[in-house]
Specification:
46% helix, globular, 6-stranded mixed β-sheet, 16 strands, D-Maltodextrin-Binding Protein, domain 2, 15% strand, alpha/beta
């Protein structure tokens, strides 16, 4: 009898032990993902809440948000040292800054019939921007198609219709002139500012029907005439029309720093500002009361009805060293498809999903609606990022400076820059050759 009782106790203990081991095994099976994100205090809090929501519907996955360092060198150090996160929120510069090797290719996941993503859900231009040399690098959630930010109060006072912005440069010049205030010869409010020289250069070129690389990525700055004419217009705005100061600031500093580098618009001493949409948080950190909208930068005389645009993106990247790339991808997929529209609506960013057009609040939002139309009606430039692009761009601010400070004519400055670009392309030819052979729109 005692033997039977002992056997029962052993069986019960064994079952309890199995349950404990099973529970422990389940706990040990929890997937931990580190998610690097950096935004305003409110954005950080919003994202943190979304991570908790994901954990509730996916109890086996814990996503920990860590504030991403500002300095790209710190991110590079983390990647090189193998301590980078599984997931990184960053922009289109990732392949330039840290190499395509830092990115886990999402091709197999994103094209999988069960866990993939329908490309038709996204604006084509935004989706195409995450394709690099045949690799799907990330899932975009916001984009930066480039345009004019304007002070709504100042436009209203000048009798200008924000819903009917200028389509071409001459009309735009008239707007900027009306918005420029002078005290005698001294300007006390500019009609227009550019936040950095190379961004101004990029959009002046694109809006005049040009591009910075030809269709097979063998020549940089093929649209010489378009760029030269854009420079003359830019110089006229600065010196002849006197509607804007000499553009200052350099790139690669990050949206927050670049917004602060040119403070005239933020402190309401400029009525319009060429930057790009999607940085409302950076503006409002400086001036929380700034009421502004955006519209696409007007086209130059050499542009047709449609143009190539360069929509830099905000995206969720899975980094190559992640031990759980599939789970990281699934989280990125969920966050973009389920949360990004609400995130962009909350923080005045430009969404990448077509269903944004069905959102009544966005369709009447002067900061977002015009940029959605731009994404819908124009096309992405053929090559958004490619090997050597950073080295080429390093000379762009210098080229602009020479023209605006009358150190060279637009023709001379562009010719000198073309020589530099050709040298960079020659230096990167092996990488460019490999890139061209693989580059195609995968997703």
């Amino acid at each position: 009898m005692k033997g039977k009782k002992l056997l029962k106790r052993l069986i019960v203990c064994g079952l309890l032990l199995c349950l404990v081991l099973g529970y422990t095994g389940s706990a040990m099976g929890v997937v931990n993902l580190k998610f690097w994100f950096k935004g305003s205090v409110e954005q950080n809090e919003w994202v943190q809440k979304s991570l908790l929501e994901y954990s509730k519907v996916n109890p086996n996955v814990k996503v920990e948000m860590v504030l991403r360092p500002d300095a790209k060198e710190a991110v590079a150090t983390a990647i090189a040292g193998g301590v980078a996160p599984d997931l990184l929120v960053y922009n289109h510069n990732v392949p330039w800054y840290w190499g395509i090797e830092a990115v886990y290719p999402l091709n197999d996941f994103i094209l999988d019939p069960e866990i993939g993503i329908d490309p038709g859900l996204f604006f084509n231009s935004a989706r195409a921007s995450v394709n690099y040399g045949g690799v799907v690098t990330a899932i975009p959630y916001g984009c930066n198609p480039g345009g004019i930010s304007y002070n709504r109060r100042m436009l209203k006072e000048a009798g200008l219709d924000e819903w009917n912005p200028p389509a071409r440069w001459p009309e735009f010049t008239d707007w900027a002139y009306k918005l420029t205030h002078r005290d005698g010869k001294r300007v006390n409010r500019w009609g227009l500012t550019f936040h950095s020289r190379d961004h101004g250069l990029q959009y002046m070129m694109l809006m005049n029907g040009g591009d910075f690389v030809n269709d097979d990525c063998t020549e940089y700055c093929p649209s010489v005439e378009n760029l030269v004419e854009a420079f003359y217009q830019w110089r006229d705005w600065t010196y002849k029309d006197e509607i804007m100061p000499v553009a200052r600031g350099v790139t690669w500093g990050g949206p927050g720093q670049m917004a602060q580098a040119e403070s005239a618009f933020e402190i309401e001493r400029a009525a319009m500002h060429l930057w790009a949409s999607g940085i409302a948080a950076a503006f409002w950190e400086i001036n929380p009361d700034l009421d502004f909208g955006t519209f696409q930068m007007p086209k130059g005389p050499m542009a047709g009805e449609t143009i190539n645009i360069s929509p830099g993106h905000a995206a969720v990247y899975v980094l190559s060293h992640s031990e759980n790339p599939r789970e990281a991808y699934l989280f990125a997929r969920w966050w973009v498809l389920e949360k990004s529209l609400a995130f962009n609506e909350e923080f005045q960013g430009i969404p990448v999903l077509y269903k944004a057009l069905e959102n009544r609040d966005l369709a009447t939002n002067p900061m977002i609606a015009p940029m959605l139309e731009s994404l819908k009606n124009n096309t992405l430039r053929s090559f958004h990022v490619f090997p050597g692009r950073l080295d080429v761009r390093a000379k762009e601010p210098e080229m602009v400076e020479k023209v605006l400070l009358w150190k060279a004519t637009p023709e001379e400055a562009v010719a000198e820059f073309k020589k530099h670009a050709a040298e960079v392309f020659a230096r990167y030819e092996p990488e460019l050759k490999k890139f061209r052979e693989a580059h195609r729109l995968v997703w």
